[in-house]
Amino acid sequence: MRVVVLGDIGQSVYHVGDEAMAHAVVDELQARGVSDIVLLSRNPEQSARLYDTSAVKTLEFPWPPHRRETYLKEIRAVLAGDLDALPADDQVHALIKTVGESDGVVIAGGGNMNSPYGWLLYERAALGAIAESLGKPLVISGQTVGPVLTGPDYDTAIELFRSAALASVRESTSLEMLNEAGLQTGLTLDDASFLKASPEGAGYLSAEPSYQPKPGRPYLVASFAPGTGAMDRNDFNQRVADILDRIAGPGSLDVVMIPHMSRPGNRDIDIETHADIQRRMRAKNVTVCGQFTAEEAATLTTQAEFVVASRYHPIVFALGAGVPCVALAVDYYGEVRLGGALANWGLGHTMRSLRHVVTPEFNEFVDELWRRRRDIRDYLNTISPSQADFQSAWWDTVVETLKGATPVAPILDIPEPIFPELHSGEHPEAAKLTANNEAHIGHQSVELYRLTHALEDTTGTLAAAEAERERLRQALEDMSSAISAVEREVESLQGRLGNLNSSMLVRIGRRLGLLRA
Mapping DSSP to helix (H, G, I), strand (E, B) and coil, where does residue 66 land? Predict the structure, then answer.
């Protein structure tokens, strides 16, 4: 059986989380006998080397909303039989051929079913439309939907999920959104929750400086993105430095900063952020690591004593391995994802946002969570087998669906909140109000982006029309000049002919009969 898998992979910026979810899909399919896998990637050569499987070029959609909407309509027109809707050399034709030669399609998990990352949503929508038109079963796994989805993007996301033979989301908020749209969707853990450990030395992105765990020496994993939401970056990074110093104490714990996004070979994005945080720390036992592969990052994270992160997948890796963690959300998108990941393990109330980080009580929370870390680890290890069994059953269902079965998508049984003393104390209605405000701002931002680019395109179209009008005006002027020149030439010839007719030589010729009158 040949299966086409789409993940957000092969980017010029390596992203641990996106690559981890794609790795998980490949691992789980292969473990169930699916050996012929074709990855859709922006860099097929890189992905083929990393995953040891086939890879081809994926679709690349334009970023501006109205442009991606137009392109998706053109693709759907091609699928409906209008082959003139797009040029013969358009990228979509190769993808249609790839899907046509497969037995099914899997869209790996991710957080791109929203308007801020709309070009990725539309890439998935196009793949879903192709699969549906060719009668290939489509599986959508472990998604975050929204929270910001403008009208056209919302309709596109709903249509995509409706076309799937099997689909799941990874947090309750996403499940509620789809249920409200009348869709019955599964609820699962993130695809990479139990990513297989990396063989020692594997991964071509291994970088220096690195960190090798030392026997008997515990370490803390920290991972932070450059984004700091509404908080000043200097203030946020200083607060993070203070938190890490507070946990690490007087050198009894190493701090290992693992980047989840950077350009391989460049110490940018997360690495640059980590270096800034390190400069602000008092502790000296801090390692700012280079870019690891997804499997290497997961392996090192799962062996940690503790994890502190604003990034999503360090928290996912930690929970699946029973590692206590502090999840810091810098915006509502982060709250949905981090809070959802924690809630799936009964720890949703331990998520903290910027509203909490800036309060004095946050230090007390960090101290309490650190003090209870062994209890939290024991709890996570207790429920981990049942969580792993559930996720394994999900992958069984995925393969059954790809083979033509029509099973019902499973719903994860979310544990009741544990360790109530770790609750933030924030009233749910206050948190909801903040969430609504951020969502509203997000929608307005996307709409402004849409209008800005629509105006740019309209301005460009008007400029092109004006240039064409000027070209035609100049052409008409040139033509008029040419006509005038011809008229003058005709007039000149007529004058010369008149002169010739009246000449003595012509008169004599006519009298002699040599010329007709």
Answer: helix
